[in-house]
What does this fold into?
Amino acid sequence: MENLTEVLQLFLAAENFLAIAVGVIVGVTVGSIPGLTATMAVALALPFTFSMEPVAAILLLVGIYKGGMYGGSITAILIRTPGSPASACTLLDGYPLAQQGEAKKALKMALYSSVIADFISNIALIFFAAYLAKIALNFGAPEFFWLICFSLTIIISLASGSMIKGLIAALLGILFSLVGLDSVFGSQRLTFGNYNLMDSISFIPLLIGLFAIPEIIEFYRKKVVPHLRAKASGAGVSLGELKRSLKSIVRGSLIGVCIGAIPGTGATAAAFISYSDAKRRSPNRERFGKGEVEGVAASEAGNNGVAGATMIPLLSLGIPGDVITAIILGAFMVHGLTPGPLLFQENLPLIYALFLGIMLSSLILLVVGNAAIRYFSLIADIPKSILFPIVLMFCVYGAYAVNNDTFDVWLMLGFGLLGYVFNRTGIPAAPFLIGFILGPMFEDNLRRSLLIGSNDLSIFVRGPITWFFIALTVGSILLALYRFVSSRHKAKREVSEPGSGV
Amino acid sequence: MKKLLNVLCAATCGGAVALTLSVSTAQAQEWPSDDVRLVVPYAPGGTTDVLSRRVADLLKEELDANIVVENRPGAGSTVATGRLARGGRDADHTILMASPGHAIGAAIYPNLTYDPVEDFVFIQNMLNIPNVMVVPADSPYDTPLEFIEAAQDQNMSFSSSGVGSSIHMSGELFKTMTGSDMTHVPFAGSGAALPALLGGDVDVSFENMPTVFSHIQSGDLKALAVTSEERSQYLPDVPTLKEIGEHGLDDFVTTAWFGLIAHESFPEEAVTTMQEALQAVMEREEFTSFVEQLGGEKGTRAGDEFKAFIASEVERWDAVAEQAGLRQE
It folds into this structure.
């Protein structure tokens, strides 16, 4: 009881509410500007927190994190330029929806899905932190290896249309991910002696180039203005659509929670895994990638599910799962607090006050997001002849802002050309991204496992977690094969049946 | 009308002269006459970044100037350092937070376009953090000697936050000095490396103090030794490796050091101003508690002493990189 009053005392300060609100607003704004990531905003906000009370300080940063995670989807949907890496997957269906005059529907679905996922993620953090942290500790390199294998199999479903083209894209993605320093020996791979390439290809310029630039080239190549004024930004999400997507949202949130709780995988991967899982299960499978609102929901659920869960290893183990939580760890340190097992023993009221604030941040995200949609969806009404030059400017600026380097601008334009070639030849960009993100994780964890196990292959079957993911991987491949064979049969039957009637 | 024009003309000229004068007085003003740029050669997050932002925040008040923190990651800090070495227009208002990567980078990448010692002015060493030799809680080894003996018969694995990190290099140094059979298992950052250590997937690590301190306190990790010159005040019962004395460990001292450097053309008066301001920063209560939180010590080296220290670091890691076959061609 004494604790409760202390918790409320810590939480019910005007400064906390202000911090969350400001954080979420800054996050949504920054997240929606390509190249300005939530990571940068959190780093820039850090010094401001030095003089604040610890709870308000952390909540400000958490607010930016959560706002940024949602904000990235706004530009992904409206102008095919992901504001942050994690929203790359959202544009696969969000942008087509906006093109069909349903921008508002996509934006609203992204928001609702983000908020629900955020909420589920917070619940996981508050009630299962200790349990999930224990699982995270049992997640060594071999377990990671199989998780990545499983993720790779479920993205087979992303290669819609031609399997060969999907494979070409994925392999090209892996090829580009090889650039940089070898993670075990530190030797240079495909850097051609260029210092800028040593830290591997920057992800944000690649994303911006791959998605936004081809759209701009296509627009000027055709030299016709499709409609001077795009149709008004459409209606919101109907209850039916939300209901239909709810299963995917919940599943996506849980995928996000699991991935967030294990340090080192990240929100971008979570979004893609959630998206392909939803696509595989959905009866509307065929519509994914062409403007299916459930796709937007699944992707946003995946990446927002990560946000609360990354706080699990941070608070309970003192382990930051990504860059943003690393900065938040720094904020804890500056305030004389060390996240980890002892924090729960020594500062329990503070932790609970933080939990309350984190819950509140989901609600504030809903309010701020709704307001943002009202203004941002006006972008959809701007004539493209005016919009695209501005988008191009943002692309250049965004690529530059990541590392303050012009090299990244060239990189972005290079990937723009590649994206254009992809568009013209019908090679899908999503498998390329997956290859780029998961390829290095696959390689690193394979090599790490072999190093840990002194080249003994039995390390790959060492415990229940590995068995679980092996079963999932094999099951997933069998399911894909079954679907492939049965669709072939169906196609054959359809071809032969009319003939047999004659 | 003409009169009015004349008056306007005179006023404009006068204004222009006043403006020129004020600009020239600004130039004659003492350093800093402009914003100071503090380059962090790593991405946001991590000790270098947080330390830089903490220092910038306090330094702003001491110098009465704006301090702009800029992250410029790449190739283990060598991209940002190379850029600093090239100098340029604002070299007299640019400082960089250097760390072990400055010396290790020079050892690993032979094609650097700069000399890690001669091309820079070394202003002030701000913070030193010891590395701690830690093993999982259920490890059978309780002292460094027990570990070394075991490592001479069987292969041991040691984790690090990545190739060329001070954690990795400390492990390599330990391996060569003691003749142990050890395999390096690199991870993408300390955050990813820690679960492998806590879960017992790797046998040992020479982690930075702040990463493992709370786990040592909670009993999830065992500290066998610290790598600093003297015992750490935060782990007074843990011996230094130097104390062990055997196996050539008597000169095993590695610390993660952090300090501010600048281009060689950085004006002398600016160095003095900076050193005075940094001294004041380091005496601030906020800085002291921050250092304590990291389990580190305030840096004492400045100027030439700092430079000599870096020179010895470069030489030492050069030898380790050579022996461990880490030199890139």
Observations:
- Chain A touches chain B through 58 residues (CB under 8 Å).
- DSSP finds 20 helices and two strands in chain A.
- Residues 2-486 of chain A form one domain.
- The mean pLDDT of chain A is 87.
